[in-house]
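User: Structure tokens for this complex, please. No commentary.
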Amino acid sequence: MATILEMRRITKEFPGVKALDDVSLKVEEGEIHALVGENGAGKSTLMKVLSGVYPHGSYTGDIVYDGAVQQFGSIRDSEDRGIIIIHQELALIPLLSVAENIFLGNERSRGGVIDWRETERRAADLLARVGLKENPKTPVADLGLGKQQLVEIAKALSKDVRLLILDEPTSSLNEQDSEQLLQLMMEFRKQGVTSILISHKLNEISRVADTITVIRDGAAVSRLDCRDGISEDDIIRDMVGRSLDDRYPPRVDHGTGVRAMEVANWTVHHPIDSDRTVVKDVSFHVNKGEVLGIAGLMGAGRTELAMSLFGRSYGANISGTARINGQVADLSNVRAAINAGLAYATEDRKTYGLVLDQTIRRNVPLANLKAVANGVVVNTKREAEVADTYRDRLNIKSSSIEQETINLSGGNQQKVVLSKWLFADPDILILDEPCRGIDVGAKFEIYTVIRELAAQGKAVIVISSEMPELLGITDRLYVMNEGRFVGEMPTSEATQEKIMARIIKAGESII
Amino acid sequence: MSEITETSAGAKAGQQAGASWRFLKNHLREYGILFALIAIMAFFQIATGGILLKPINLTNLVLQNSYIVIMAIGMLLVIVAGHIDLSVGSVLGFIGALAAVMIVNWGMPYLLAGALCLVAGALIGAAQGFWIAYFRIPSFIVTLAGMLVFKGLTLWLLAGQSVGPFPPQFQLISSGFVPDFLNMAGFNLFSFLIAFAVAAGLSWMAIRNRAAQARTGTPEEPFAFFIFKTLLIFGGITYLGFLMAGFRGLPNVFIVMALLIAVYSFVTNRTTTGRRLYAIGGNEKAAMLSGINSKRLTFLTFANMGMLAALAGLVFAARLNTATPKAGAAFELDVIAAVFIGGASMAGGVGTVVGAVIGAFIMGVMNNGMSILGIGIDYQQVIKGLVLLAAVIFDVMNKKKG
Ligand SMILES: Nc1ncnc2c1ncn2[C@@H]1O[C@H](COP(=O)(O)OP(=O)(O)OP(=O)(O)O)[C@@H](O)[C@H]1O
Ligand SMILES: [Mg+2]
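Assistant:
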């Protein structure tokens, strides 16, 4: 096999941080090459260097692609050579149609006039190639994240891709969609397209990758050949520098049987289309000292349930009652909900979680400013101490607490969101996909924090699409499907199959 | 291969040597604006053959710009919150007219009238803020409407005539000077001492701040920069105070401005309200989900803007000593330009009070200097427009690089 890409001794510095320190990477033509490493190790940065997001001259070292040294000045340059990157955060325009998005900046036109017939025909072809059965005229906003991801790939294919870079493509996909994506990657491999895959889901990596490069603290530490039979533990050892004995902290039962929150007949309608019920007559409770899981497929209504409880941040015509410590709680706005002891850490850190232009120091205390102020005057020293404490505790990789959150790696941004809500010190903490984009080692630390909260008598509700995670850290589970709760079980009796069976059975009974 | 090693080794050495250079590059914006003001002042000082910094002209400069500075402070908050207020010029005119009608036509005591005018301004701001905050009508539209409405109401109130003059005590807001308690012939020592105290206070705060930073170990500017900047600010203010003391002393309105700058800097930098304001401007959804009442804060920001516009209206009317239907026309543009030159971002969440004030003075010095040079109003507009554009382009490029 020929070498398609060799990145030699790449060093990239940001003010105060050396994100890449003399990294070399070698990718063979036609393989699936995985890039793994802890949060902030430099994976996304390396790919941005490769694709010209950081242009030639802003880094040192050489990119040898297709047998020649390349000096990409922009993404356009790398795309012209067939290198297409799909970023960690999707970049589609929601109100444009699928076809328009696919050919954005690359329009099918005749003499400056868009040829819609051709555009739609070609779009339909590409959609067929990625296995997406949607009308090319559908607005992207109407598609779920999994499908949007496929549209991004169709867009890449429209540009005659030779090297496809996927930065955490499956982090917000459910298992089915992830599976479809991985199948597609293997299909591409057969067609001779080379791919670079960044992911924290090691099971996926060990399934599809041919070669793995492990990056740690901005340096490439090892290169593993999967034909030699690589186990997840081997990858982890190289990633974190030690072996990880357990993926989940031990579960000690702190359940008191005392109800922290009890929700009855909670019904939520869609905020715009108010005839549509998004959450239907849901009743549940969570006990003090308990970690409760809510399982379900993407789009089951879990986020909507949580956000509607949290100060009616979502939905219209909300009905039902919520009791906290036996009293009917005022959850009419976010402030009231926080005062009632509730907190909700969002799954969508960029839109709902962070003030991206601001530093870690400013973001962490945001939900609990009173605790860092004397009256209305902020005690900047205490503010800095708080930010530093959480930076250490969750191991947020950054130059200092003065780093703007927009410049943090995805996983580290997630940790800032978690810090904010831990500092708000709620009695009932709802975590929506808490470990999205978080590396294996850090996951363990976050699970440990969750168990500690439970040990202190707090109630934690975890919403997750990763069933092993729910099975690993919760005490009790509800299963949600199509806006309803369709099952409840102690985690000790739960299995993935049982959960899926509930979902499927519920799906049948609706039809 | 060896070639590559050499380049990276060379780059490393360069990077180490350029540590303080890098700091400057990262904080170019903050220093840049201050240096730009100094450079512009130096330029006009030379070009006008020393007229710019003559005590009488300097005093004039402060008086001429006071109302723009006052409104720029309010506008900074509005823009940080992610909005805009186009109505401030009209509100300034309207309040001036209201004051004239109450004081001159009705003979109302000027203190009472002044207080009522501030309340009226706050109510006007609140009325606009109400629609913006609670009904989510874009601020551009609401305040564009406000601009037309209050322009019309000013005409109506004054029946198309100029109304004046004001009683002498009222004029003192603008034309009065800090009295010299120390009775020194030809030099207002008391005024100088105030300026000196302000300069010393600012330096003391800067030193304390730096000490606090050193304790928490956060990254800091190189020592030489710190000394240079602090000395520059200390020297500059003392010198300007010295110059003005040699004329009639510090204008009353200078004291008003200094107080406003101090209070609003403190509010934006050090209070929970300030933190919340920047948060809603930076990401309103995230701020709301953190329990911040963004509607109320937006509403209050506009009410505050209205009150400051009213204060500016009083200052302006007192300075002209009449209220005219044309007062305040197009002032909103200078105010908004000052805030953007001062480094605020259209998207919200970014900007400082001090930056906005410096921005206002950059505009003011250019107006003043170009007038002294006899440059026509036509060219003046063109040049000011280009400076605004250049400042914002600089901002955007600077951000991209980072
Ligand atoms: N624009 C920037 N300015 C300053 N520092 C940056 C910038 N972009 C990235 N960094 C820093 O570079 C380091 C590497 O970041 P990168 O995004 O490459 O990590 P990653 O390996 O992709 O992590 P994750 O798994 O969390 O996505 C981090 O410490 C990050 O804070
Ligand atoms: Mg990344």
